[in-house]
Amino acid sequence: MNWIDIESGLDLDKIVEESFRHDIGVAIFKHSTRCSISSVAKTRLSSSWDFNEELPIYYLDLIRLRDVSNLIAERFNVRHESPQLLVIKDGKCVYNASHLSISVSNIREELEVES
Question: What is the pLDDT of residue 83?
């Protein structure tokens, strides 16, 4: 699994651009380093992620970059949650899950992508 760090709000423009280049989009994982549920969700993703280059995944430390987390919520018209996984396709959020609903199988089922 290759986490791509989000370092600033400027990275959101790059994410939107990338979302047009991938058939199923790109993923954003918003992680709270202070939350045990967030740690569980991150571990579950890391251990079962099998998308490889098919679905690049961006990582946001929302404790360090709460302002960027708020920008994500605003830009993609989703409620802020933690942990949270969004899939962005053609500049729009097409999938949004939080807490223990975050799983590779749920992503595949929702996006109708076979493994």
Answer: 96
